[in-house]
Amino acid sequence: EDLGGRVHAVPKNGCPTIALASALNRPAGLLVVGDWLYLTERGNSYTDGAIARVALPDPPCAASAQTEPEILVEGLGHPTWMVVPDDALYWTGYFSGLQRAPLDGGTAETLVGCFGGYQVRARLVKSLRQPDFNVALIEDLVAIGGSLFIVSRF
To answer: Which of 35, 59, 71, 81 has the most C-beta neighbours closer than 10 Å?
Structure first.
């Protein structure tokens, strides 16, 4: 996690490091799909996380590849892990659970809700008068075949 808000490409062929994006809100997860680098911005609150993408440098030693990230989904709760098992992007969020949206962006759909940590969860459920969440915290996400696998606490 880079608290300075930058994502860099480090070419394996010895070319200099390339800045791909800057001024991001706590970038964390990275995923390459085709010619795109998808990234998560964890954010600083329950709802200011986002998922964005930037084009990969072509050629790999491009001198100035930095571009403005394309924001695909906003208002997320600390997104981190991402997978693309089909035509959609799936991710986990510490405060939002397992969600998905089209690869080119759109509205997030929650598949498994959660809210980070048992005590936070209990206070939030009580104060918001919302139904309890399915899990307290999702730690990791993997896609194998037609299934998504999550690691959760609680």
So the answer is: 81
Report CA dihedral (16, 29, 48, 98) to the nearest 10 degrees. 160
- Write the pLDDT tens digit of every residue in 57-113: 877 676 655 578 999 999 998 898 899 988 899 998 887 788 999 999 999 998 887
Distance CA 105, CA 70 (A): 9
CB-CB neighbours of 138 under 10 Å: 24
**What DSSP character marks residue 17?**
P
Number of alpha helices (DSSP H) and beta strands (DSSP E) in the chain: 1, 12
How far, in Å, CA of 121 to CA of 132, rounded? 8
Q: What is the bridge-based pairing of β-strands 137-144 and 18-21?
A: unpaired
Phi, psi dihedral angles at 81 (to 5 degrees): -85, 140
Instruction: Tell me the residue type at 115.
Output: F
Dist. CA 67–CA 46, nearest whole Å: 27
Instruction: Look up the pTM and report it.
Output: 0.78
AA identity, residue 72: L
Q: How far apart are CA 118 and CA 111, in angstroms?
A: 20
